[in-house]
Design a protein that fits this description.
This protein has 2 domains: 65 residues, no CATH class; 200 residues, LURP1-related (Porin, Beta Barrel), CATH 2.40.160.200. Helix content is 10%, strand content 39%. The protein contains 4 helices and 23 strands.
Length: 288
């Protein structure tokens, strides 16, 4: 089978149709492959026009491996229905991060798209209050803390509101719907070296948000049994075998349909994680 080289190095659809993705190192197609989120090594070499387009592991020498961590993080999402999706009903969301946001009178607006690139809403990081801004200027602080995040639909109507009621080391986050009705809370738990927020709905814990560290941007939502139900990730993610996300975006993925209030709390946590949960303050020049 004769197959030409890729236009650029990186993960591409497998031209040999053995796997969903195959890594091209800039010179040849390598043995590094991935299927449905599972990375692997293709141990059977493929020859085409006398060139070793794929190499077994024992023949790999220098320059053939993907960048550090790529073999563990390369992942393919299942193909999804092409029908238009609403934000609260979408299976996969692509969210712009602060560097791609647009500053306006109400705050920093970050676009949310569905898996086909259609705009389905906005994550709005609210402007900081005048008192906090004045204090920051006096102290020459170059970052600011976020006290509120709004999730809007494609028309600008409010779907969810996240608020931090006080400036504490790890404060809880209150979540309400567009009408102002409380949905629940994201309550921090003291877990050494890890990020964890419980999803509280009234008098019961319906799930949790967890990350490998307090600044880990790749977080997972679990239900009350501990099973993973949703996640957000930024590294080596692809929407399909041929579509790659743009820089400064991250994916929010629901692994299965969720009932309320877990669905709203999970989406609130994942859409607001970079601004409210992860200890990564928004730079001033990105959220004035």
């Amino acid at each position: 089978m004769t197959v030409g080289p890729a236009a650029s190095s990186g993960w591409h659809a497998d031209p040999f149709a053995r796997h969903e993705l195959r890594f091209h190192d800039g010179a040849i197609w390598t043995e590094h492959v991935a299927d449905r989120g599972v990375p692997a090594i293709d141990t059977e070499p493929i020859a085409g026009a006398g060139q070793p387009w794929s190499r077994p592991p024992e023949l790999s020498i220098g320059g053939g491996a993907p960048p550090e961590g790529a073999r563990e993080r390369a992942r393919v999402l299942p193909e999804l229905d092409a029908a238009p999706a609403r934000l609260l009903g979408a299976r996969v969301l692509v969210v712009d991060e602060a560097p791609r946001g647009r500053s306006g009178p109400a705050g920093l607006d970050c676009t949310v798209r569905d898996h086909r690139g259609r705009r389905v809403g906005t994550v709005r990081i609210a402007r900081e209050g005048p008192g906090r801004r004045a204090l920051r200027l006096v102290t020459s602080d170059t970052t600011r803390e976020v006290a509120r995040v709004d999730v809007l639909d494609e028309t600008g109507a409010t779907l969810l509101v996240l608020r931090r009621p006080a400036r504490l080391l790890k404060p809880r986050v209150l979540v309400s719907d567009g009408a102002g009705t409380p949905v629940g809370e994201l309550v921090p738990r003291q877990v050494l070296t890890r990020l964890r927020f419980d999803l509280d709905a009234g008098d019961r814990v319906v799930g949790a948000v967890e990350g490998d560290g307090p600044t880990d941007p790749n977080v997972t939502v679990t239900d009350h049994t501990g099973a993973a139900v949703a996640r957000v990730s930024r590294t080596w993610e692809v929407l399909s075998a041929t579509h790659h996300p743009e820089p400064d975006t991250h994916l929010v993925e629901l692994l299965r349909p969720l009932e309320e209030p877990l669905r709203s709390l999970a989406l609130a946590a994942l859409l607001g994680s970079s601004a409210l949960l992860v200890q990564d303050p928004v730079p001033v020049d990105e959220a004035r």
